Amino acid sequence: MGLRIVIAADPAGVDYKEAVKADLEADPRVEQVIDAGCAPGETPLYPSIAFPAATMIAQGQADRGIFFCGTGMGMAISANKVPGVRASTAHDSFSVERLIMSNDAHVLCLGQRVIGRELARRLASEFLGYTFDPASHSKANIDLIIEHEGRADSRAAH
């Protein structure tokens, strides 16, 4: 079974989203590409795109996400506000590797105004190739993050 990838962008990242979407649709590792917006010509704010796209991951409707904006930062900050989702900007191969291998992240965020299109395409492809090893020493860090998030959720509910 292949990966289900949600792809999303605000107006500052929509060109790269369209290029990477085409790559993902042709990638044999990908079972489904879910386009969560925006489309060329639309002008939504990045949180209004990132929140529902990240929620798809949190609810199990997608396995991972690749989000774009001008820097990648706004989408990462927004996606991280969705409980159960870990997102980060990464603009080099080592960081993309560590995003999965050290952080078991769900979302790669890329900046259209920061890196070139071909690098964005390569990093998106690399992101799909890594799998977190739950036997790694990084698992303890992930467990602490999840535990803290659970405590924060229970405090917010009261």
From TrEMBL:
One of its GO terms (molecular function) is intramolecular oxidoreductase activity, interconverting aldoses and ketoses. Pathway: Carbohydrate metabolism; D-threitol degradation; Carbohydrate metabolism; erythritol degradation. Coiled coil: none annotated. InterPro entries: RpiB_LacA_LacB (IPR003500), RpiB_LacA_LacB_sf (IPR036569), SPI_LacAB/RpiB (IPR051812). It is an enzyme of class 5 (isomerase). Keywords: Isomerase. It catalyses: D-erythrulose 4-phosphate = D-erythrose 4-phosphate. This is D-erythrulose 4-phosphate isomerase.
